[in-house]
Design brief:
By secondary structure, the chain is of the alpha/beta class. About 35% of the residues lie in helices and about 15% in strands.
Length: about 350
């Protein structure tokens, strides 16, 4: 693995000035992205959006392959890849700041949209419940990755990662869980709502004032102009025509309830948590650390619920050091046997 250095472990600015955005693709944005992508100002979001592509994934619950959105690495290498999930009702664009750092450091890095969110083609709407999301991700892995992953899940993506690691342990080498939402009992009473009420509730998720308020809770010291631009990034996938149907299907299916699976995790895990998280208290970080069989925890000062957006340098550094530290241990063990 290549050397990785970002200096001392300390808070970095919200938007990292040391990063270099990807070069823009010659033909611009993929045609399947909503046209509102042109309004996004953030160069890192724009450049990562230009790299989103759709790959066919065959699943047993759909007659046709699902054209599944992701950011594919520019090149693959012999090391196990880092695979990035995202949170609830989000997309791979969450990783606009951290993805280039991991890639520039030499990691084979994938950013994958979870079935039902992101920018996949769901015109022929498949089921978007937990089992379908898990099966879709497995088939994606089995088709394109086929090696044990360092699987990174932020927020609800941590529940996706734990559920996947327990059911397909051969596909996951290590877990990285960021401000993990793993103790909620699914979607709760929302699963019993009448469809009309569920659709009305889901439609609020793309409401701009609501998203601005969510940014206020999620981040600290965010300017209004930046918050508006990040809102445009965060709701872009909501503008696809099948988004409401897919989200309602997930919500009424019951959602993720993985608290009973935590102690079944066999992989080593790194827990990363923003100390100022106002969405999920860091007391759950301590609880998760106690319940995972083999885990270490790192808290990030002056940081909210999405450290990979707010403190990308530090998150990339922690992931890299964690992976490389484990690799060094293996090499030392081999050397000692010679």
């Amino acid at each position: 693995m290549l050397a990785f250095s970002f200096g001392s472990v300390a808070p970095v600015p919200t938007r990292c000035r040391t990063q270099r955005p990807f070069r823009a693709a010659a033909d611009g944005f993929p045609s399947f992205l909503p046209k509102q992508v042109e309004k996004i100002k953030d160069p890192f979001a724009r450049n990562l959006a230009m790299r989103i592509q759709r790959l066919p994934v065959s699943v047993k619950f759909s007659e046709d392959p699902i054209m599944s959105s992701c950011v594919k690495p520019l090149k693959q290498n012999k090391e196990n890849p880092v695979v990035l999930l995202h949170g609830f009702d989000s997309s791979c664009l969450e990783w606009r700041y951290t993805y280039p750092l991991l890639e520039e450091a030499g990691f084979e890095t994938w950013a994958i949209d979870i079935l039902g969110w992101g920018f996949s083609d769901l015109e022929k709407l498949p089921p978007c419940d937990v089992v379908s999301k898990r099966d879709h991700f497995y088939q994606f892995w089995n088709s394109y990755i086929r090696r044990p992953m360092i699987l990174v899940g932020p927020s609800l993506g941590s529940a996706v990662a734990i559920d996947f690691a327990v059911n397909y342990p051969e596909a996951v080498e290590k877990l990285v869980l960021i401000d993990a939402s793993v103790y909620a009992e699914g979607t709760g009473n929302l699963a019993t709502l009448p469809k009309a009420v569920a659709y009305a509730g889901v439609s609020l998720l793309k409401n701009i004032p609501l998203r601005l308020y969510a940014n206020y809770l999620t981040f600290s010291n965010l300017s209004l102009s930046t918050s508006i631009d990040w809102t445009n990034v965060g709701r872009l996938h909501c503008l696809l025509p099948w988004w409401e149907d897919a989200t309602v299907d997930f919500m009424t299916s019951g959602g993720y309830n993985v608290s009973s699976q935590i102690k079944q995790v066999k992989q080593k895990s790194l827990i990363i948590w923003g100390e100022n998280d106002r969405i999920i208290s860091n007391k759950f970080a301590v609880q998760l650390h106690c319940e995972l069989p083999d885990a270490i925890i790192r808290q990030i000062p002056d940081c909210g619920h999405l450290p990979h957006v707010e403190r990308p340098n530090l998150v990339a550094k922690l992931i890299a050091e964690y992976v490389q530290q484990e690799t060094k241990k293996v090499l030392q063990s081999v050397v000692s046997l010679v």
